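Posting for a labmate who doesn't have an account.
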Amino acid sequence: MAQATAALIADDTGAAAHGAAGRRIADALRRDILDGVLAPGTRIRQERLAEEYGASRVPVREAIRALEGEGLVTVVANTGAWVSRLSLAECDELYRVRERIEPLLIRMSIPGLDDADAAELARLADAMESAADADEFVRLDRAFHDLTYRGAETLMLGDTVARLWNRTQAYRRVYSRLFLRHAARAVHHEHHLLVHAIETGDADDAERVLLGHIRRTRLALAKHPEVFDDADAASLQ
């Protein structure tokens, strides 16, 4: 009996260790994908990850499965895993979904935002106007929109929106390089309009501005199919 109990404890301890390592690897891999260190289409080699993080193949496989569930990694049976890629049609559909659900999320969020949140949003909107490059802009833009949604208490909508953002992050970064040269004024203006709507508690205006804000990006991406080649290029890494 004592030996059986000890074996069970050892199994539980091993499973817990694998779980913790898997979460650590998944967090690091997710960050590399979202930060553009790993471009769409990059091969993910399990043995290299195991060596890099001093882990066995088990937590590495758990991390890859977790990111596959988030849509960030594509696994082909008996072949391997890659950072997920999007076609223009797939990205267009994701943005159309965002146009429908993010205005609802910001409406739900506004009552939960306070004056300090509005002040931080105004600071982020100003900072985006002076961003040094697309990477800085994308980081600030994500922080801005995440904060606009922070006041909402949801069971699934917030997580759904976060996953949609993650799926399109690489393409938004490349698009932002174009936008910073050609469409900066309109996008910055929309950010400030969102801040004003939140300051005044005008959920109707916030919904209207946000829908147009997301739609603008979708339509611009449709005019620049080369973004989907550029985002897959090694130059993004």
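Reply:
Got it, the structure tokens are right above this. DSSP finds ten helices and three strands in the chain.
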